[in-house]
Amino acid sequence: MPSMNVSLEGDITWSTKRHPTHQAAPRSLGPLKYVALDCEMVGTGPKGCRNELARCSIVTYEGDVIYDKYIKPLDPVTDFRTRWSGIRRQDLLHAIPFDQAQKEIVKIMTGKVVVGHAIHNDFKALKYFHPACQTRDTARIPLLNQKAGLPVHEMVSLKRLAKAILKKDIQNGKGGHSSVEDAKATMELYKVVENMWEQKLSALSLSDKAMDLALNQKS
Questions:
Q1: What backbone torsions phi and psi does residue 175 show, to the nearest 5 degrees?
Q2: What is the pLDDT of residue 6?
Q3: Is 68 exposed, middle or buried (0-12, 13-18, 19+ CB in 10 A)?
Q4: Is 112 helix (H, G, I), strand (E, B) or coil?
Q5: What is the rounded CA–CA span in Å between residue 39 and residue 84?
Q6: Cα–Cα distance list, 167 to 46, 78, 158, 182, 191 (Å)
Q7: Model pLDDT for residues 157-178, shown as the tens digit of each residue
Q8: What is the Cα–Cα distance from 131 to 83, expressed in whole angstroms?
Q9: Beta strands in the chain (DSSP E)
Q10: Using an 8 Å Cβ cutoff, are 191 and 119 in contact?
Q11: CA gap 70, 47 in Å, rounded
Q12: pLDDT (tens digit, 9 = 90+) per residue, 50-108?
C-alpha cells in the first residue's frame, strides 16, 4: 500500500515512493530549517508482525529536543520489543493517541528539511509522506560511508556510523534504543557532510534542469 500525505487540516492524499536524498530543496523555501527525527516501534498483530509507532523524538539542528512523546499504538501491542525499542508496558499507560501525535509531529516537520536514518521506516509508522526534496536520509548518503571507510552502497546502521565517524557508542545496554539519542546522532552525522552533500544535490538539480531544457528545445 502506498504511503499517505497528511496535511495539517487532516486531508489525506496518496503518494508514491520516492528516493529521499537525491533532490535539492527549492529556493522558494527560503532559509532552510533542519530537524532530525527518530521513532521507536512496537509490534502488533500475530507475534508482533506489524510495526506501530510508540515513541517519537525530534531535535533541532543544534541538537535540542523539541518533541519527545510516547504514543499509543492503534492496535493492541503484542510485542514491546523492549530490547530494541526501549518501550515498556508502563511507558504507554499515559501515552497520547496516535492521531494527536501525528498532527503534532507533522506540524513540526512541515516546511522543514527532515533528517533521519532509514527514515522511510519512520514516515511509514507515522503514515505520512514528507517531500523528497526536504528529506535527508543518513542511511543513503555515500559520503558518510566513505568517511566511515565502508562500501558506499552498503546500508550501514546508525550505530556503526556513529562509532566510526563520531567516535560515539550509542544503542548500548539492555534498556533498548533511545529515540532522542538516535535523533541527535543522526543530526551530528548529517552535519559532518552537510556542505558537500548539499552542493552535490544542487549540482544534480541544475543538471536535471539543463537536461529538461535541452529536451524541450528539441521538441
A1: -80, -5
A2: 45
A3: middle
A4: coil
A5: 12
A6: 39, 36, 12, 14, 15
A7: 999 999 999 999 999 877 778 9
A8: 32
A9: 3-6, 12-15, 34-44, 50-60, 65-72, 77-79, 96-97, 113-116, 135-137
A10: no
A11: 22
A12: 999 999 999 999 999 999 999 999 999 999 998 889 999 999 999 999 999 999 999 99
Cell reading at 62: 543544534
Helix, strand, coil share of the chain (percent; to 5): 45, 25, 35
Over 137-154, what HEC string results?
A: EHHHCHHHHHHHCCCCCC
For the record, the C-alpha cell of 202 comes out as 544542487
CB 170 within 8 A of CB 180: no
How high does pLDDT run on average in the chain? 84
Cell numbers found for residue 184: 541527535
Q: Is pLDDT at 206 greater than 70 in this prediction?
A: no
Provide the pairing of β-strand 113-116 with 135-137. Answer: parallel
- Count of CB atoms situated within 10 Å of the CB of 96: 14
